[in-house]
């Protein structure tokens, strides 16, 4: 069962999101918060697998809350769920430690897919957001490619293989199945990769993998 904490300052939005999540028998909403500070506090007491954060909330906005949760509850996945898809918000969310970014205008199935992906240790972006991120990466890929290749050269061959699969969007369980190892081994590799690359989360590691050219063929059986 995936335990979710939902944070949004609009009660009607929370009710709608809760209804969507409740339709999935594998998801349980364990708490709701009306602002970012409350979300951080409730995360400490409920220890959910995933926290859904709106961006614009009183006392502490979703972006600041995501950063705080990364520091105080690193084992909890964070998804930004918002009406706003501006590039500045996307960049701040991902650099702040969020593992997902979803638009409220998206298909409800995206929400469920995102929760399952982040709970499984993967990253998830709304298709519209993913397109914008990839477009941005494509524009600067040649510029950043040399630096990314230098950074990934310090990894072991197995770590590079795990990074490539991570960059393709696979969860820890999926990577374990592909490499025929236990999931705990993959978690150890991912932790080592984040440390070696000096990045905060899987999304940032995936960007390095993409810029280094590791992703293109990684997802092929």
Quick overview of this protein structure:
The chain is an alpha/beta fold.
CATH superfamily of the largest domain: Response regulator
Q: Structural class per helix/strand content?
A: alpha/beta
Strand order of the largest sheet: 2-1-3-4-5-6
Q: Which architecture name of the largest domain does CATH use?
A: 3-Layer(aba) Sandwich
Task: Give the biggest sheet.
Answer: 6 strands, parallel
What's the helix-strand series? Answer: EHEHEHEHEHEHHHHH
Give the tally of β-strands: 6
Q: The CATH topology of the largest domain is what?
A: Rossmann fold
Number of domains: 2
Instruction: List the total number of helices.
Output: 10
Indicate the CATH class of the largest domain. Alpha Beta
Low-confidence stretches: none
Distance between the termini: 29 Å
Shape: globular
Structure description:
It is a single chain. This protein is an alpha/beta fold and 221 residues long. The chain folds into two domains: 2-125, 3-Layer(aba) Sandwich (Rossmann fold); 137-211, Winged helix-like DNA-binding domain superfamily/Winged helix DNA-binding domain (Arc Repressor Mutant, subunit A, Orthogonal Bundle), CATH 1.10.10.10. It contains ten helices and six strands, in the order E-H-E-H-E-H-E-H-E-H-E-H-H-H-H-H. A six-stranded parallel β-sheet has the order 2-1-3-4-5-6, sandwiched between helices. Helix 4 (87-95) links the parallel strand 4 (77-82) and strand 5 (100-103). It is globular. This is Response regulator. It comes from Actinomadura yumaensis. Residues 148-213 form the HTH luxR-type domain. It holds the Pfam family Response_reg.
